Amino acid sequence: MAGLPTDADDVATWLRDNTSGSNSADEAVFVGVGDMLRTGYVPAGVARAAIEVLGRLPEVRTETTGSQVKVIFDDPGTRDGNHYVIFDTDTADVIEEGFAGSEVSYRATTTYHPLATPFPPMSRRRRSTLSSSRSPSPRASRPRKRPRG
Questions:
Q1: 130 vs 6, 34, 123, CA distance in Å?
Q2: Average confidence (pLDDT) over 44-50
Q3: For residue 71, which of 81, 50, 86, 59 has the smallest C-alpha distance?
Q4: According to the UniProt record, where is the region Disordered (predicted)?
Q5: For the chain, what is the domain count?
């Protein structure tokens, strides 16, 4: 992700060249941005450019509520309903995405958790205590064979 461009025009070109499988090129770009940003691994400059690309799509409108913005892709010529992605306005994290239609709808929420909590580095004394308190491995406790000769 770090190798992606940070300019919106370049991100738009990259997305158009690397997304497919939707009813239109614009819809593929919309879905591609949601897929990319949902990972949480996109650098801030790339995320800003990708969100700017969404704003340029003619089928997109937004609704802002509190600290969330809902970006809606609405193309009534291709289907009944619309795709949407909801971003946290403070972090640009994707917090929900889905499709709302009269016959079919879905929604998926994303919760971000840190992978691990930071812990203080161990002191030398603590490290030496841990290494000396290890029990020997089963292999180390077996007697060595004498070489024949």
A1: 46, 46, 11
A2: 91
A3: 86
A4: 110-149
A5: 1
